[in-house]
Amino acid sequence: MYSTYVIYELLIRLQALDPAVGDYVSFKKIKAGICVMTTTGPLEIPDILLDLQFNNPAKINNEDLLKVLRSLP
Fold first, then answer.
1. 1 and 45 Cβ atoms separated by less than 8 Å
2. How do residues 10-67 score in pLDDT, each as one tens digit?
3. Residues 10, 49: contact at Cβ < 8 Å?
4. Would you say 68 and 9 are in contact if contact means Cβ atoms under 8 Å apart?
């Protein structure tokens, strides 16, 4: 399982692309990663992005982050 700080770091990066992401509320494990509840709604973040954010955040590009943003209703 991932530390909450990894989720916060990803949210900061997502908010830089779209401030409407909202603020962290909670998260739950789903089959392919986690579902992060924000004040705007849920975001699905795949395990690979969580691993990269923890181990090598420089390898995450804006396209990866935009894919996550597309999961926001």
1. no
2. 999 999 999 999 999 999 999 999 999 999 999 999 999 999 999 999 999 999 999 9
3. yes
4. no
Judged on CB neighbours under 10 Å (0-12, 13-18, 19+), 21 is buried
Tokens representing residue 3 in the block: 């530390």
Q: Which two three-digit tokens encode residue 10?
A: 């990803």
Q: Which residues contact 3 (CB under 8 A, 6 or more apart)?
A: 54
> 41: exposed, middle or buried (C-beta count within 10 Å: 0-12, 13-18, 19+)?
middle
Residue 10's nearest CA partner among 40, 41, 38 is 38
Instruction: Please give the single-letter amino acid code of residue 18.
Output: D
**Residue 32 identity:** A
For 40, which DSSP code?
S
